[in-house]
Each structure stands twice: as C-alpha cells, then as structure tokens.
Design goal:
It is a single chain. With 507 residues, the protein is of the alpha+beta class. Helices cover 41% and strands 13% of the residues. Helix 2 crosses helix 3 and helix 7 packs across helix 10. The chain is elongated, with a radius of gyration of 29 Å.
Length: 507
C-alpha cells in the first residue's frame, strides 16, 4: 500500500488552498500537501530536509473507516454509511454532500471510495488556504448532484447556508439554540442571490457570496477540517460520540435574552447572518491561547503526537466571539431622537443599528466607532449599510457615510447613511417617526442598537450614565441665596402657577 500511496502523491496536482480566516483576498499558496504544520498566522514552520509524507490524521482516518466498512458492509474501501456514521453523525446532509463530492472528483468507479482516493481528496480539503477556493469548493460540494454540471440551484445554496447555521447554533456557548426566524432569513439570502431564478452558474454564486456574505461558508470548512483531523482518535478508542465536536467554538455572537414581552428585531439567526456579513470588527473573535510548548515538543504519547500534528488546525477552528449587548430598544425605551441619543452616546465601541420600516423592511447600519453629533459625515472604512429583509444584500460599504444631527442649526436634522451627502441611502427624520430607504418613504416602526465592543465599553458607558445622574442630582439640590432667587426663572414660573408669595424662612 505504501508504494501505491507514493504513486498517488507523484501524480497529485498542485492546488490552491484557503484557511477560512482573514487571508488576503485572491492570494493563494501552491505546493504538494505535506505533514508540515502551519502556524496560526499562516507562516510556515520550517523543517528542512524532512521527506514529504501524507498527513498522518487523514491516513489513520481512512484506514479506520475502511476497517469499519469491511466489517459492517463487507466492502474494501470507504462506504457512505460508515463515512456518515463515524465522521459526521450529527449532520447527515453534510456527510452525504461531502461523500458525493469526493466520490465524483476522485472519479471512483464503484459506489464506495478507495482508501487512497479518500486520503488524497481529504488532504486537498485540509490543505486549502485561499478564501475563494474554500467558497468554490463547498458551493460545488452542495451542487454536485445538479442535473446540469456547473450550475447551482436555489435549494443547493439554501442547504449549504442551513448547514452553516446549524453548525453555529449547535456550538452556541449557552448550548444548542433554535430560531423560528431561520426560514425567513434563509429565504431572504437565497432571494438576494437568485432574484426569483431557479439556478445560477457556480462562478456567479461564488462571486455573490464573496461580495455579500463570504464568511458564512467558513464555519462549515472549519468543522470539516476539525473532524477530518481529530475524529480518528475517537474511532480508534471505540468511542462513538455524537460527533458534536467538543471544544469547537464557532464565531456566532451571543445575544442577551430580552425582557418578556419585548420584541427583538434581531433574532439569533439574524445575528448569525450579520456575523458573516458585517466587517470582522463587529465580531471580534478572540484567538485561543497558544498550545503549551511541551505538548508541541513531546511525541512519546501517540495522542500527544496527534495533537501536535493538528495544532495549526485547532487554531483555524477555535474562535470565541464577543458579546453583543443591547443598548437601545425603542419598544422598551421609547422611539425618539432623545431616547436614541441617551442610550447610544458614550458607548466607545462598534454598534449595529437595526431599523424596521413599513411592513417588512429591515436594514442594519454598521457603525464602527462611538456615536457623535456633527454637521459632517463621519466613519471609518468599516461602515456598512445592510438590507436584511425582504431581500438580503450589502447596500454600501464605505468610509464617511454616517450623519447624526439633532441640535446644530442650518443643517439637516436626523440620522442619515450613505457616502453621497446629496442623496443618502437611509434617512431617519428628526422626529424619528418617518424614514426613507433608497429614496422610498416608509413609516418607522422600531429601532434597536446592539453594542459589539468588549465588556469594558459597556461598563464605561454605564459609569458615564451614573455620573450624569449624580451630577444632575447635585445641580438640583444646590441652595440659592435670597438675592439669586429674586432673578431666578423658577420664581416667575411659580408666580404664573398661582404662587405669588414665596416663604423663604430657611434663608
């Protein structure tokens, strides 16, 4: 078998790869996949004069799956039944599409996949380091059974997006979550891509995902990489776990529970969509701690050695998102400019403003920095205007596209968004009762503001509010002298209310 493996490696084509992380757009790495691990930053760990060999975890996984297939199905190879049962038991749809894809690209002649083909194709997936290659691979994977090759149906894209959503919700920090709005969210995304058409070419769908929500695909890739690199340990130990991927964290923001009876404009599925759409600043994934040096160096224990060989994979998979905190909810705090300002000012971090208008319109304004009132447009390059419903799209992503003015005379009042001041894309009127989006007027139903910074940003904002309350109380309790009271405006208000005499016996 070793000579056969060597023959396969010599004929293997050079592939572009992708990590699913923040690698430069359009960049790629070329070369035969080897066992040389990569660091979390993408730099190669130099190990000179080491012969090129196959990835140990994939080779072990292929042998173990072949053994299970031989024992349970009497087949010399990897069957779909054993592949699903032992690799992706929690996600049969992902297992079916993954198996069908490597079966097709590996040009397997039988219903099962030979062990050597399984190893080669899985190594290619593990070796991908380019974002565009990752997206194209999984789009093709979920459209592998289309009647017309090279096309993607709306149902195929929906299945891919639902798999990403299911993975993210199953690994929610508070436990598996469900969201009643997921069908509406998926329909919005699919309608935004297909625009009432039944199918598109693979290239069109890939370009659309890259432009609007490319990071939604990466959790699927991270999970597949994680399972391909680590599942062999569970199988070899005869531990048939549920396949949930213990310890796997996916970048899904955590939403605080709203008060009973208060409607949320941003359900968990909406947060999942925004996390894959808005610039990375709003998700702020925290990298896991580096692997201890002794674990990397020691290979006396087989399990420790396997951990060392997959350390770079763990860095790609694990990501702990920030906590999205609700700052303002018009259904609870009241809809108005002063209410909006009171709850959003002094929050020194990025925010997402969810605006609901008309019957079904919902747009999100991504503000990358602290809100402020001024007569000019402001904001960094991480500003974005996103339409969630009824069809999903990134409307604009540009700097200096936010405008807020409620007090400066001679300039337009209200909140505006758009890089062209002469024709803003979003306008919320001064009274916060009307709005227009893409020059179409709507009634303003509700507004929510979510803080996407760290916990310190929220704590500092609350401290400023407490200081403002204390200062107002102190100003209100200031004692006035008799001379000051004679000219004080409150004295005239009391007289108008029927109190012409004021007994200042305390002075």
């Amino acid at each position: 078998m070793g000579s056969h493996h060597s023959h396969e490696e010599k004929g293997e084509k050079q592939e572009k790869g992708g990590s699913g992380l923040n690698t430069p757009r359009g960049g790629s790495r070329r070369g035969t996949v080897t066992s040389v691990p990569r660091s979390g930053s993408g730099a190669d760990i130099q190990e000179p004069e080491k012969p090129q060999t196959s990835m140990v975890p994939v080779e072990k996984l292929g042998k173990l799956l072949a053994q299970r297939s031989q024992k349970e199905d009497g087949v010399n190879g990897v069957t779909e039944k054993s592949f699903t049962k032992y690799l992706f038991p929690m996600y049969p749809e992902l297992a079916h599409q993954f198996y069908a894809y490597i079966h097709k690209v590996g040009k397997s002649k039988n219903q099962h996949i030979p062990t050597s083909v399984f190893r080669v194709q899985c190594e290619k997936i593990l070796g991908m380091l380019d974002d565009a290659a990752i997206i194209e691979t999984y789009v093709r994977m979920f459209s592998v059974e289309e009647e017309e090759e090279g096309t993607v149906s709306a149902a195929a894209l929906r299945a891919l997006l639902y798999t990403s959503y299911k993975l993210s919700m199953d690994h929610y920090p508070d436990g598996p979550q469900t969201c009643l709005a997921i069908n509406k969210v998926l329909n919005s995304v699919v309608n935004g891509c297909f625009n009432k058409k039944d199918s598109h070419s693979v290239g069109f769908v890939v370009r659309w995902l890259e432009q609007h929500c490319h990071r939604l695909i990466f959790p699927v890739h991270r999970y597949c990489v994680h399972m391909l690199a680590t599942r062999h340990r569970d199988i070899s130990a005869h531990v048939e776990s549920d396949g949930a991927g213990a310890g796997l964290e996916l970048a899904t923001p955590v939403l605080e529970r709203a008060r009973a009876g208060v409607g949320n404009l941003l359900p968990p599925s909406g947060a999942w969509l925004l996390a894959g759409t808005a610039p990375p600043l709003y998700s702020r994934p925290v990298q896991p701690p580096p692997l201890p040096q002794q674990d990397l160096a020691s290979t006396s224990d087989p399990q420790t050695g396997a951990l060392a060989s997959t350390a770079w994979l763990a860095r790609l998979v694990c990501a702990l998102p920030s906590h999205w905190a609700p700052l303002y909810n018009s259904n609870e705090h009241g809809l108005g400019a002063n209410r909006f300002l009171h709850h959003t000012l002094n929050y020194r971090g990025p925010t997402l403003v969810v605006v609901a208008g008309g019957e079904d319109l919902k747009v999100v304004l991504a503000c990358p920095q602290e809100w402020r009132e001024t007569h000019t447009y402001w904001g960094t390059a991480d500003c974005a205007l996103i339409q969630l419903f009824p069809t999903f799209s990134i409307v604009e992503h540009a700097p200096k596209m936010i405008y807020l003015n409620t007090s400066i005379r001679g300039y337009p009042k209200g909140l505006r968004a758009g890089s062209d001041p002469r024709k803003p894309l979003l306008i919320i009127e001064e009274g916060f009762d009307k709005m227009s989006f893409n020059s179409v007027p709507y009634s303003l139903r509700a507004i929510e503001v979510w803080g996407c910074g760290d916990q310190t940003s929220r704590e500092n904002q609350l401290e400023v509010k407490k200081w403002q309350v204390r200062e107002a109380e102190r100003q209100r309790q200031v004692k006035l002298s008799a001379a000051d009271w004679i000219e004080h405006p409150d004295r005239y208000l009391l007289e108008l209310a029927g109190r012409p005499q004021y007994n200042n016996s305390a002075s």
